[in-house]
């Protein structure tokens, strides 16, 4: 390779005045100007091709890669469910059985008077004296109906504890709330208990 010739061409290119080029007759341009023009056109062609084709393809590739990841996650979730299907079915059957047992512990409309009687019997067995026991207006919730029962009774502290334990042992679901205990003003150990019992009924019609 003739390095002296390359140096001469490079020096000529540096000294060349591009403003003197005849834009209507590129064939008359000197060799250095033609080389620069060819390189510039090649770069413009590469850049335009990238913007028109490659950039869109890269975006499409990224979208497809994200889609592939989503499909992989969905496949893994479905594969896990399929592999554990027998266990899930067993759990579902167990939940249905437990739900059925819980529903069996909720009184129906016809059983509510009997439940009030059971609560009253628990109090009498605990040697409490009932002043009042009455069913309040029902409260409708999203999936069930709440049946509040207002109770006012008198006795000593241990008898009240026995009563609460007896109510908790009832075959029907009964919860106790908002209780207050105060002296009854009659005896030294006598107390008055105000308590709100709640039982529940499932909304079968819904």
Structure description:
By secondary structure, the protein is α+β, with helices and mostly antiparallel strands. It has two domains: 1-83, no CATH class; 107-202, Ribosomal protein S6/Translation elongation factor EF1B (Alpha-Beta Plaits), CATH 3.30.70.60. The protein is 54% helix and 21% strand. It is built from five helices and five strands, in the order ααααβββαββ. Strands 1, 2, 3, 4 and 5 form a five-stranded antiparallel beta sheet that branches. A hairpin with a 3-residue loop joins β2 and β3 (144-155). It is rod-shaped and about 125 Å long. The N and C termini lie far apart (95 Å). The model has no long low-confidence stretch (mean pLDDT 78).
């Amino acid at each position: 390779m003739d390095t002296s010739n390359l140096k001469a061409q490079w020096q000529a290119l540096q000294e060349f005045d591009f403003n003197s080029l005849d834009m209507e007759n590129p064939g008359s341009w000197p060799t250095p100007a033609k080389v620069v023009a060819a390189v510039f056109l090649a770069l413009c062609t590469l850049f335009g091709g990238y913007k028109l084709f490659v950039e869109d393809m890269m975006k499409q590739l990224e979208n497809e890669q994200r889609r592939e990841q989503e499909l992989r996650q969905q496949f893994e979730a479905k594969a896990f469910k399929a592999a554990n299907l027998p266990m899930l079915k067993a759990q579902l059957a167990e939940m249905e059985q437990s739900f059925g047992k819980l529903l069996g512990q909720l009184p129906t409309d016809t059983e509510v008077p009997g439940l009030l009687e059971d609560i009253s019997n628990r109090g009498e067995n605990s040697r409490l004296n009932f002043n009042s026991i009455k069913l309040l207006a029902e409260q409708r919730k999203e999936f069930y109906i709440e049946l509040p029962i207002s109770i006012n009774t008198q006795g000593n502290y241990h008898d009240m504890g026995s009563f609460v334990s007896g109510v908790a042992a009832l075959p029907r679901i009964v919860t106790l709330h908002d209780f207050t205990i105060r002296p009854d003003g009659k005896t030294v150990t006598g107390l008055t208990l105000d308590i709100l019992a709640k039982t529940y009924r499932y909304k079968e019609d819904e």
